[in-house]
User: Fold these one by one.
Assistant:
Number 1:
Amino acid sequence: MASIFTKIIKGEIPCYKIAEDDNFFAFLDINPNAKGHTLCVPKKEVDRLLDLDEETYLGLMAFSRKIGLAIEAAIPCERVGMTVIGLEVPHVHVHLIPLSTMANATFQSKVSLTTEEFEKVAENIRAKIQ
Ligand code: AMP
């Protein structure tokens, strides 16, 4: 069965889209650690990061860097952190999280945003993509 992220990539489930290219897709995390928390996903559906072929792995890192720089330019924060977990959704995804405190990195404290706030955050990040 297709993963929830494949359904998002195909447009079958809505998301706050940030960017896409031929191989990768970025959208806001629906339960963010901090405002601007973004997921970068390979369109190829693979469960584990280290099972990606090298080209896709390196491409995902390059794509994530591009999106991370846009987040850093759009969202006030100390820095953008990157983490890969995958215990909830078995489709590789890079979490890009604007960090101001260590709590933002822990997945314990969450922020809730309105639809309008999600849309505005996504628009602000999109505007900073080089
Ligand atoms: P993990 O697999 O542990 O790295 O976590 C999966 C992440 O995907 C969590 O941070 C969720 O909030 C996020 N997530 C799950 N479903 C959606 C969705 N439909 N749209 C955006 N983010 C999602």
Number 2:
Amino acid sequence: MITLALSKGRIFDETLPLLKAAGIEVLDDPDKTRKLILATNQPDVRVVLVRATDVPTYVQYGGADLGITGLDTLLEHGMEWGGAASSTGLYQPLDLQIAKCRISVAVREGFDYAAAVRQGSRLTVATKYVAIAREFFAAKGVHVDLIKLYGSMELAPLTGLADAIVDLVSTGNTLKANHLVEVEHIMDISSRLVVNQAALKLKREPIRRIIDAFAGVVGQK
Ligand code: PRT
Ligand code: MG
């Protein structure tokens, strides 16, 4: 049995066409069932639904053989920057080019971020992405106090909780609606296929077949 970990919502929705092109059809609609294990048309392939941030954990510890997760989530989980294999035991063979966005620094309209950086001010930054933010500001030589949040980052600069946020931006509509402006583009994000390295050795044949099918679909073969 091959187990693929996915999160509900945008990753599941954008993965379905890739699975279909690879000949795998999920037999249940996650929005209509309470099941967390979904069968597919391939008797030896199943999908498990987990929280987006739990996908790397499932794959790392073998609760799933493969998973699909954002680069943001992988980097926060401890995947080395740009690394293929890493200490986490996760092998990252493919950029699936789905759920694309960018990770950026944003501040309240009217906050002079450039001046604050120039003057060497200490900035308070609220984010779900503490590791990415720490690495980014350290490389830039900016002193920051990081505040970990789990959601609604946009609220932090508006309430005085923080000077800036580090968050994902796609259309920019959420920032605009909250009178925030993007002042740094940290990196582009897309979702990645990750594979448990031990599973790849033990179930090489069927896992390779899935990786190759995805690779064919995203044109990276
Ligand atoms: O929702 P939950 O807490 O369960 O987990 P999650 O938020 O991690 O999952 P989900 O499904 O929201 O996101 C999964 C992955 O999708 C992320 O890890 C990213 O890799 C990717 N992705 C792509 C995005 C976006 N685009 C995105 N726009 N994830 C979140 N957003 C949010 C962003 O945080 C901000 O609040 O959408 C808002 C901005 O969108 P725009 O279009 O207004 O700019
Ligand atoms: Mg979300």
